[in-house]
Amino acid sequence: EKVEMQTLVTMRAILPTVEILNEMKKFGATEGGKQTIARLDQFICQTQGEFDLVITRRIKTKIANVYSAWVNQNELAKWWGPRYFVNPVCVFEPKINGKIQIEMEAPDGTFYKYLGIVQEIINNEKLVFTTKLVDTHGKPLVETLNTIHFSQAKDFAVLTLHAKNVLATEMGREFLNSQEESWLSSFEKLEALLSK
């Protein structure tokens, strides 16, 4: 049953006698049911695809310039992340199983560390990689599979990002809520970089 933006789940058990019901209550069946629902909620939060995102951006330049800005870590450091964020650490190895490590610094001095692996790379056509936002202990808060398709449409480079959420802890969900805004801000920075 839908309740505003949530789903209400009700568990019911049909038992043959009241005596059996009373015995089950003695063994904590009610609490066990609540714990089962809580684990279901946690599982859904970690696996649901509600945060999948697709963004297409057209930039007036050659596709090779856009592709280079993705795979050249010095260029990537200039535009990755929301407006006013900087990337004092930006490692991107453009090869299969290449390492990704990006440490973004927010204007307030807070650091956000992303780790990932390049899974597929086709020059000027496609880039597939994972990113994990990790906490200070290295524990993943959010993991995303990112697929970027590159194409040329006359004078415009067209890039399409598909960011598929594969893990989100409760704390990580907060970051996913701003994922689209962050990517759009990053693409604005990318476009500004390429128009210089």
What does this structure look like?
The chain is α+β, with helices and mostly antiparallel strands and 196 residues long. 34% of the residues lie in helices and 37% in strands. The protein contains six helices and nine strands; from the N terminus they run ββααβααββββββαα. A seven-stranded antiparallel beta sheet has the order 3-9-8-7-6-5-4, sandwiched between helices. It has a two-stranded antiparallel ribbon with strand order 1-2. The N and C termini lie far apart (53 Å). The N terminus is likely disordered.
Topology record:
Blueprint: E1 2-3, E2 6-7, H1 18-26, H2 29-47, E3 53-59, H3 63-71, H4 73-79, E4 86-92, E5 99-105, E6 111-122, E7 126-134, E8 140-153, E9 156-168, H5 170-176, H6 179-194
Antiparallel strand pairs: 1-2, 3-9, 4-5, 5-6, 6-7, 7-8, 8-9
Helix pairs in contact: 3-4
Largest sheet geometry: 7 strands, antiparallel
Count of distinct strands: 9
Low-pLDDT sequence parts:
1-5
- SS class: alpha+beta
Radius of gyration (Å): 22 Å
User: How big a fraction of the residues is strand?
Assistant: 35-45%
How many helices in DSSP terms? 6
Average pLDDT works out at 88
Global morphology: elongated
Order of secondary-structure elements: EEHHEHHEEEEEEHH
Q: What share of residues is helical?
A: 25-40%
Distance between the termini: 53 Å
The side-by-side strand order for the widest beta sheet comes to 3-9-8-7-6-5-4
